[in-house]
Amino acid sequence: MTSRKGILIALLASVIINGALIGLIVGHRMEGEERRAMHGMTRQLLRDEPSEFAEPMRLAMEAHRSEMRSAFRQMRSARRDMFKILKIPEASTADINQGFVRIREAEMNLKAISHQVLAEVLPNMPVEQRLHFAKEDMMRRHGGKPHSGERPAN
Predict the structure, then answer these.
(1) pLDDT for 6-23, tens place per residue?
(2) Rounded to an integer, what distance in angstroms lies between the CA atom of residue 57 and that of residue 51?
(3) What CA–CA distance (Å, rounded) separates 106 from 80?
(4) Domains in the chain, please, with CATH?
């Protein structure tokens, strides 16, 4: 009887531990994407910045964290909805256009919040540092290629 009782206790402990681990993994997956995105945005903005500007940038982003998180969730939801629309065999042009509109609005909302954070931090930087920051930002958006902001001649 004691060996059965020992096996039952071991089985129960195993089920509890596995349930806790599965819960942690699922919870991390559900909130992990958002956390990684926020961390990635912070890291991208602060990658080449001197330490005296890194702390004010981090504090400004921390102050707007809930807004950024909400905007990121909105963007993620819009993208998911767009995939749902695209999976429908009889999706109309109007449905697809509406999906793209929601994605654009969500992306613009996230950009607006990011720009607000930058607007709070950039005035405290010297002009050379601001220009360097803007140049680095343009290079990131244009695939690492230098971009002067001018259109190429036709």
Answers:
(1) 888 888 888 888 888 888
(2) 10
(3) 12
(4) 31-141 (1.20.120)
